[in-house]
Amino acid sequence: MLAEQIVPEEIVYQRPEALVDCATHYCPGCTHGVAHRLIAEVIDEMGIREQMVGVASVGCSVFAYNYLNFDWVQSPHGRAPAMATGIKRVLPDRIVMTYQGDGDMASIGMAEIVHAAARGENISVFFINNANYGMTGGQMAPTTLPGQKTTSSPGGRDVELTGYPIRAAELLSTLDGAAYVVRRSLHDPKNVRLAKKAIRMAFEVQRQGLGFSMIEMLSICPTNWGLTPLQSTQWLAEHMIPYYPLGDYKVSPAVAQIHI
After folding, report:
1. SS3 132
2. Residue 129: which of 197, 221, 203 has the closest Cα?
3. How far apart, in whole angstroms, are the C-alpha atoms of residue 260 and residue 250?
4. How far apart are CA 84 and CA 230, in angstroms?
5. What is the pTM of this model?
6. Contact (CB, 8 A) for 55 and 73
7. pLDDT score at 219
8. 191: pLDDT confidence band, cut at 50, 70 and 90?
């Protein structure tokens, strides 16, 4: 009788092969882990793991090569787009991606990302924007919002002293070499699904040789923001999205023809 009452389990989700089965160093609530999962899922679904080469940056994402199960190289701080350029030109059959934070890509690496986009390098860039320098203690970053408090701006970011935040998606979308530049968010299920679709598009753009892609993903940083994960998702929705509107900033005519 007992055996008749047992209902077999239905597996609805499995860890992607492209995602290593291990604990990460990320703080509780950090959405770097969500971004890793999405990238791994897309790679498995597209069947491109054996073609992948990742370039890790410096910052919270520096250990991405420990969590995503394919070939990686480590770049100096901010130089991931330059390194990815070299790899893609030498090995054009590979799918080359960079994984970068806002302090890395939008500060010390600004020259590299701008010129990679301007040249139309056929690489995919994943840009995690959590509005602070996460790894080094929560200091003000190029993406920190006006008035936002950080460890180096305890009174809030003063734009008269430090200027305004950099909107990377809008900036790169003005360059002729950019083929696909969008901004997504990782703060709720709907936007996580939209982020996954954009990641798939970025890899497809590269696979078809259409040029440079950059996916900006708004992310939370509960530890440095001094908030719980739930409070952080609310803060992102209420403060970051109004300043960094979600949407497609550059979709070239050739990219618009892709259906995924």
Report:
1. coil
2. 221
3. 17
4. 35
5. 0.94
6. yes
7. 97
8. very high
- Give the containing element (helix H, strand E) for 186: none
Distance of alpha carbon 6 from alpha carbon 26, whole angstroms:
38
Q: What does the DSSP 8-state code read for residue 22?
A: S
Q: What are the C-alpha distances in Å from 157 to residues 131, 139, 153? A: 11, 11, 6
pLDDT at 9: 82
Contact partners, residue 86, CB within 8 Å, separation at least 6: none
For residues 193-203, give the mean pLDDT: 98
- Please give the CATH topology (third level) of the domain spanning 26-135+142-256: Rossmann fold (3.40.50)
Instruction: For the chain, give every domain's residue range.
Output: 26-135+142-256
**Do residues 247 and 215 make contact, with C-beta atoms less than 8 angstroms apart?**
no
Based on the number of CB atoms within 10 Å of its own CB, is 2 exposed (0-12), middle (13-18) or buried (19 or more)?
Answer: exposed
CA distance 172 to 174: 5
Burial of 170 (0-12, 13-18, 19+ CB in 10 A): middle
Residues forming a β-bridge with 139: 133
Q: What is the pLDDT of residues 148-170, one digit of tens each?
A: 999 999 999 999 999 999 999 99
d(CA 182, CA 55): 20
Amino acid at 7: V
